[in-house]
Amino acid sequence: MAFDGITVACMAHELNTKLSGGRISKIVQPETDELLLTVKAKEGNLRLLLSASASLPLVYLTEANKTAPMTAPNFCMLLRKHLSGGRILSVTQPSMERVLRFEIEHLDELGDLCRKYLIIELMGKHSNIIFCTQDDQIIDSIKRVSANMSSVREVLPGRPYFIPDTQGKSNPLTIAEQDFITLIGAKPAKLAKALYTSLTGLSPVAAEEICHQASLDSDQPANGYEAEALLHLYRTLRRYLEPVMAWKAANFPAPENAVNKISEASISSETAYRLTNSSESAETANRSAGSQERTFVTTPDSTFSPSIYYDGKNPVEFSCLPLTLYTDCRRESYPGVSLMLEHYYAEKNTLSRIRQRSTDLRRIVQTALERNVKKYDLQAKQLKDTEKREKYRIYGELINTYGYGVEPGSRSFRALNYYIGEEIEVPLDPQIPVQENAKKYFDRYGKLKRTYEAVTALLKETGEEIEHLRSIQTALDIALKEEDLAEIREELMQSGYIRKRPQNAKRPKITSKPFHYISSDGYDMYVGKNNLQNDALTFQFANGNDWWFHAKGAPGSHVIVRTNGDTLPDSTFEEAARLAAHYSANRDAEKVEIDYVEKKQVKKPNGAKPGFVVYYTNYSMMISPDISGIREL
């Protein structure tokens, strides 16, 4: 999910809880658009990262420190002058904007108490950190914006600070029922898009979630829904945003209500409506459902719940409110939004960095794969052309058998094909003697037979090469670390796809190790990350009575389960099969067929490609590739 108004509200809640009353002890500006504040709070020293990066604006508490430049930038020096030793009074969010407002109390040059505001705007390329007086006059900003750069608002010292309303969106916390129905019902866009383009602070994912909770099709045009359905959507929206409304009403009743036009009475009335009129709401929804064949269901939640949703090991989305959209994903909850964001972006950055580092390897593998696929198609066509070789042999034999009665100069003759018991017509070249036609057909047969034998061997070799390259592609998808890529690069060198290093060059040390999981019954399960690891795992590490798993007919990892001489329980077999399904090229399928056998039944043919094995007796099962709940060491 984008850093939307809901995430900002959750962040404001966390920062207000942890930083209120804390004193700013250190201010550094490690990047041109980034600040790192150290705050002495009741929990100890806390580091607050404020980033106005155009590509990834962020705010979160972190334990990581950053090195300050030798010479502090002017904006950093200004903040040190005014805010060093200052006390954070509150952290608020105006309306549902992607804006955080830090109210800071400090002593001025005369020793008098005064207040200043440090405001961070998390608005993509327009993100900024702005330092203001108590009267909302801009003192300075980390990015100065002149009239030449923006016709909407200047961000310069001495200018008044305000949040520009450039998109004309409504506040979802204060919009009335009828206004909502009129606003959304007039939009020809899809329902989800109508929500996030009409209401402040809603991201596309949040809009999809609200439609999902209301059991309304988000892809249908908003102006195609009746008023009853839109009323139900409005109430679902209010219930979804209850944690935000409740937090604002409880913590900032006076200033926040003045800005957002929300009163405790309005919050209470909404809550009262939910408690006292739920049956009426259900009846209204059911009446609407009866007319449009829908069932409206809502799932209210009263607290923030920062979570990351994973598809396997890949972080798909984060959210501060529950997402029922991702029922097939594993949900991992966090005690705070800062920890959630730090983990999410750290994992995303790791995957992104590995993707970038593996680009050259992927290009090499893809180029080789395309070349071999073309070669395979040509060879398959050549092989198909040799299918008529037997016909020429039979023609030659029939000419030798029956040709003595054929008149010279004949263009064909009919004879009994004693292989099938039917008469066939044998073509002849009238320019040469009849018996010379037999020799000509036998020559053609011999040439096609030799071609068949040669192309069959080449086709088998090319097929194995394609299978090998696809297994390397799967290994690149599995790779999570630099050392994983180093081992794949080594395999490509051994296979001749990358030029080998000079003999006197030092070979880098390979430190990549297989994945290690523990089954629910306590058995060790190991998963190879690439073909070299698969070979080492199967033929060097595993014992004869350990169990071996692999996706049937698809590139993937070898999975070894240590039995320790025990008979494995069914649950361990299933978990190992799920690992084999997940770490295969078929990981996106709903079900994957897995072969499993004792390791002693697995053999490696002489001269076989890395990772290639054969086995002749095995068991099979169909299993889901979902590995959520399997503990990794």
Descriptors:
19% strand; alpha+beta; 5-stranded antiparallel β-sheet; elongated
Notes on the structure:
By secondary structure, the protein is of the alpha+beta class. Helices cover 40% and strands 19% of the residues. The longest helix has 45 residues, at 434-478. It is elongated and about 125 Å long.
Please report the distance between the alpha carbons of the first and last residues: 29 Å
Q: Which structural class is indicated by helix and strand composition?
A: alpha+beta
- Residue windows where pLDDT falls under 50 for at least 5 positions: 254-302
Radius of gyration: 36 Å
What's the average pLDDT? 84
Secondary-structure map:
Layout: H1 5-19, E1 23-31, E2 34-41, E3 44-51, E4 58-62, H2 74-83, E5 87-92, E6 99-107, E7 113-121, E8 128-133, E9 138-141, H3 177-185, H4 191-198, H5 204-213, H6 227-240, H7 242-251, H8 255-260, H9 264-276, H10 278-292, E10 307-311, E11 314-319, E12 330-333, H11 337-357, H12 359-385, H13 389-402, E13 412-417, E14 422-427, H14 434-478, H15 482-494, E15 515-518, E16 524-527, H16 531-541, E17 547-551, E18 559-561, H17 570-582, E19 592-598, E20 619-623, E21 631-632
Q: What would you say about this model in short?
A:
By secondary structure, this protein is an alpha+beta fold. The protein is built from 17 helices and 21 strands.
